[in-house]
Every structure is written in structure tokens, then in C-alpha cells.
Design brief:
Shape of chain B: globular
Distance between the termini of chain A: 31 Å
Strand content of chain A: 35-45%
Distance between the termini of chain B: 25 Å
Strand order of the largest sheet of chain B: 1-2-3-4-5-6-7-8-9-10-11-12
Shape of chain A: elongated
Oligomer: heterodimer
Structural class of chain B: mainly beta
Strand order of the largest sheet of chain A: 2-3-1-4
Radius of gyration of chain B: 17 Å
Order of helices and strands of chain A: HEHEEHE
Helix content of chain A: 25-40%
Largest sheet of chain A: 4 strands, antiparallel
Number of strands of chain B: 12
Radius of gyration of chain A: 17 Å
Strand content of chain B: over 45%
Largest sheet of chain B: 12 strands, antiparallel, barrel
Number of helices of chain A: 3
Helix content of chain B: under 10%
Largest interface: A-B, 27 and 32 residues
């Protein structure tokens, strides 16, 4: 019985979850907070339609991480370039970012 | 609390402009200010491209050999080399403006170049600037500095650099100012405070939006 309840729970909750992608960008030239702020501002402004959030710059690992709806990788590369830096690598993982409150909908 | 108030008071006093990076990311606006006891330089800069900026520069010099107040519309170019642990920048800029030297107005040309390279630990910069006046004394200025970060701060944390800087101004009675500076970064705000070997106050400020 518990097994059927668990399956039923998963089937109900899954469609209620919003699935975003977790991006990790490795960026060349990230040496200071001035660089970090420029990239954060550009990302937040250019991809606000993709519901971008939790933008974090890690100067130790030279990475920029954030969650967002699907973003065109070429556009991402161009954006990092327009901030003055080089995009070295992109790592994308699927991530559930939030559970939709059905009552609000 | 007092240090925070002092910091913001300095920020308000020196909001005029900034100087360390003559070009920033596309779409950014920067204010820069560079100051010695006899001289102040203030820039307002807009970067439409990551390699190009346009702006206005005010240069004021109040010395025994020359009293000048100049305003230059200017354009700056950047070539940057990015690597994983460092970046190197080559800037060049120029402008044509108006200079008031004593009681005379003069057409004046501004030119400058800067090479800098920085990692999270090390910083090096050298710069040459000239103001070429049509009928009066020309000005040559040069600035070079080497710095080291005593600790490595991550994004969103206060980063400090200890810098030794040499400044040369051809129209000053004492053309050389050499001394230590402390540089602080916090998010989009940059502040350098230092002293020449004769106690001259050196103060640079930069903020981008």
C-alpha cells in the first residue's frame, strides 16, 4: 500500500515542479570583484526572461553559477565576451528549483 | 560604524570619477577620480563595447609653474588578454578639449596609454599621459605601480592590495611622488589611498554602474 502511495505522490508532485538548468561557467580573466560584478550585472539584465537566479561568482574556482530556464550557449558566450572575459567551459545540469504552489496558480 | 561613515563620506566627496580601468564591460557607466595635492583628474565614462569607451575628462592642476583647468571629450580603446589566473590590459585614449591656463583659453589635446596586468595576488600597471597645448606649456605625466594582495578575498568580500607607486608630473615643482598606497575593492567600488614620501595625500576612486 505504501508503495502505491509513494508512486502516487511522485506522479502528483512531478508535474508541480519547475525544472530549471543549473549552469556552471568557467571564465578566463576572473581576477577581481570588479570583474565579478560586471558579469553578474550583464547576466541578470540580459537573461531576466529566462528567470535567471542565484548568480554566484567564485573567484577561487573562476566559475559563475546560476539557475535558469534554457539559455542559448552561443548567446551566453557572447555575453561573457561583452563583459570583457572569455568563456572557457559550460557545465549544465538539470535541477528542480522550486515547487509550484498550486493554490497561488 | 565610524569607518563605514568615513568610507561613504569619502565616496560622496570623490564621486567625481575614476581612472584605473579606462574601459569596462559593455553598457557600464564609470566614475573615476585621481588626486594628488596639486592635481585632480575626474572622468565620466560610458562603455558601449567591452573594448571601447567614450567619456569626458576634467583635468585640474594648481601648481607654481602652471594653473590649468581643462575639459576633454575622450575616447578609449582596450585590448585584453584573459588567462585562467590573470588578465593583461593595454589601453590607449585620446581627446580634444579646451584648457584654461592662467587667464588664457587654449585648444588642447589629450593622449594616454596604459599597460596593466593582474592576478588575484599581484598587480602591475604603468601609464603615460600627455596634454599638448596649442600655445602653452605641454604636460607629461607618468604613473607606475606594483602591488600585492596580503590575502585573497572571494566575490562579495573586501579585497585589499598593498601598492608602491611612482608618479611623475612634468609641470610640478616636485615632479616625482613616490609612496605606498592601499587599494580596496568592494563589489563595484574601488578606493586607493596613499601617501608620497613627503606626506602628500594620494587618493583614487572608481565606481561602475
Amino acid at each position: 500500500m505504501k508503495k502505491y502511495i509513494a508512486i502516487l505522490f511522485v506522479l502528483i508532485v512531478m508535474p508541480m515542479s519547475v525544472w530549471a538548468e543549473a549552469y556552471t561557467l568557467t571564465v578566463e580573466g576572473l581576477v577581481c570583484d570588479f570583474c565579478a560584478q560586471g558579469i553578474e550585472k550583464k547576466l541578470g539584465k540580459e537573461f531576466k526572461d529566462q528567470k535567471i537566479k542565484d548568480i554566484k561568482v567564485d573567484l577561487n574556482n573562476k566559475t559563475v553559477t546560476f539557475d535558469a530556464d534554457k539559455i542559448d550557449q552561443e548567446k551566453l558566450k557572447e555575453l561573457i565576451k561583452s563583459a570583457g572575459y572569455n568563456l572557457k567551459a559550460i557545465d549544465i545540469k538539470q535541477a528542480a528549483t522550486e515547487t509550484v504552489n498550486m493554490e497561488k496558480k | 560604524m565610524i569607518s563605514r561613515i568615513a568610507f561613504w563620506m569619502l565616496w560622496l566627496v570623490w564621486i567625481g570619477s575614476s581612472y584605473a580601468h579606462p574601459v569596462a564591460y559593455a553598457g557600464s557607466v564609470m566614475f573615476e577620480s585621481y588626486n594628488t595635492p596639486d592635481m585632480s583628474e575626474n572622468n565620466v565614462i560610458y562603455s558601449p563595447r567591452p573594448w571601447l569607451s567614450v567619456g569626458v575628462q576634467n583635468f585640474h592642476f594648481d601648481g607654481a609653474l602652471l594653473d590649468e583647468n581643462a575639459l576633454y571629450p575622450r575616447v578609449a580603446f582596450l585590448k585584453r588578454w584573459n588567462r585562467m589566473d590573470w588578465q593583461t590590459n593595454l589601453y590607449a585614449w585620446g581627446g580634444v578639449g579646451w584648457a584654461r591656463l592662467g587667464s588664457n583659453d587654449d585648444l588642447s589635446f589629450l593622449g594616454g596609454a596604459q599597460l596593466d596586468s593582474e592576478s588575484r595576488r599581484w598587480y602591475f600597471a604603468t601609464q603615460l599621459v600627455t596634454l599638448q597645448h596649442q600655445s602653452l606649456k605641454d604636460v607629461w605625466m607618468s604613473r607606475s605601480g606594483v602591488g600585492v594582495a596580503p590575502y585573497l578575498a572571494n566575490s562579495g568580500e573586501l579585497q585589499g592590495f598593498l601598492i608602491v607607486q611612482a608618479f611623475y608630473n612634468s609641470i610640478d615643482n616636485e615632479p616625482w611622488i613616490i609612496g605606498p598606497m592601499i587599494r580596496m575593492f568592494y563589489k563595484s567600488i574601488f578606493l586607493e589611498v596613499g601617501s608620497g614620501y613627503k606626506g602628500q595625500l594620494l587618493l583614487n576612486f572608481m565606481a561602475s554602474f
